[in-house]
Write a structure and sequence with these properties.
Number of strands of chain A: 9
Helix content of chain A: 40-55%
CATH architecture of chain A: 3-Layer(aba) Sandwich
Oligomer: homodimer
Number of domains of chain A: 1
CATH superfamily of chain A: Alpha/Beta hydrolase fold, catalytic domain
Largest sheet of chain A: 9 strands, mixed
CATH class of chain A: Alpha Beta
Strand content of chain A: 15-25%
CATH topology of chain A: Rossmann fold
Number of helices of chain A: 7
Radius of gyration of chain A: 17 Å
Chain lengths: 245, 245
Amino acid sequence: MQFTSEQRLDDGVLEREFTLDEIPGILWTPGSASASAPVPLILIGHPGGVHRMYPRLVGRARQCAADGFASATIELPGSGDRPPSATAEQARADLRRALEAGERVSEEIIDRLILPLVEKAVPEWQATLDALLSLPEIGGPVGYSGGVIAIGVRLAVVEPRIAAAGLFAGSFVPRATFEEARQVTIPLHVLLQWDDEGNDRQAALDLFDAFGSKEKTLNANMGGHTGVPASAGDAAARFFTRHLS
Amino acid sequence: MQFTSEQRLDDGVLEREFTLDEIPGILWTPGSASASAPVPLILIGHPGGVHRMYPRLVGRARQCAADGFASATIELPGSGDRPPSATAEQARADLRRALEAGERVSEEIIDRLILPLVEKAVPEWQATLDALLSLPEIGGPVGYSGGVIAIGVRLAVVEPRIAAAGLFAGSFVPRATFEEARQVTIPLHVLLQWDDEGNDRQAALDLFDAFGSKEKTLNANMGGHTGVPASAGDAAARFFTRHLS
């Protein structure tokens, strides 16, 4: 892991860009972090495109820091400045075609779009976790927050260092993910935008039902895909405070 | 409204029992209430049986007081020490018979059980509201919290003094209530116990979908009908603080 830039934000948060095996990422630590004991960590997921998503990512990172947590994100395979994937581009073109034709998006397209992404992204998140946890200012426990839900589900199943996950039920769910969801046992906080124009509400409810976790909360709100109300962000933050502090 | 008893709880909350047209009720005000400006009010609903429900009601009242709100409850028609209703008793017996036989509870039984209760209880809550708002220590705005959901829906439609409602999707929903739900426009916080053994989850989701409110949140958790986690109680309290403070 190489740090490539460093800046102090106005609220004292230290923002450091890094690369890890050519994957770009950003680490945020609270202003007080170096002076005190190692802090818990939240991995911040997103739909791809760290620069495009930066305003929302840094907002979530500031909230994490205010709650006493470090947070970090990495670019998704095939997104942002990373080399594009021909199969993903093809799947995305097929998806666009189906949506423009007003057709139901087939499970086959969803599988082609999401499953290779999960296969590639999950080990990258795990390598990032190795690197971050080796820093003296970062300890555990570790939470995973948001992003492509199939990645969050896989991480929750395969990565025992993740103690709690806040998931955003706003992306396509491959069939295999419903099966994996039964193996998830960590506490979950699932956010659903009830009238999300690009999301299958019933699939989100089925996925919530499938999770094996004894402690899981569904927090559904109005306002479309990008209209998550501030109160829902606050509720997610409190979830992490309960489980990581 | 006649106050019939008064006691100061250990956290300074003033608890006063009252009767209003022979309906028994309880009013709780924060320890600081008489000394300061009039406080907002939360009407605390329940499934009937104020004495049986007292431990949970006083817990909710203490939370209201800690947040700076007065709160009050009244006995439901036909419950507790109030004269029983022959039609309600008959409907309850038919309900029990259906449940014991493992049958689906018919819409006709639900209508007979709930609709007369709504017709009678709602004007009683409104008369209670008149009386409570005439007390110098109680102002507005007013919230309604929990209890038989069809009563909460009707109150949200017909009583303009109610500014926000926290509803518990854990009771039978008459067909007419789904139609009324479309007329509700106040902010709503709906609590659902996902694996509530005595509750129809799909009916709860359909009701949430039907509400006309632009601002509505569904908060679903594990734990059965009486297993609402503390975090869900906290989330409901924060909802009222956002809308009534």
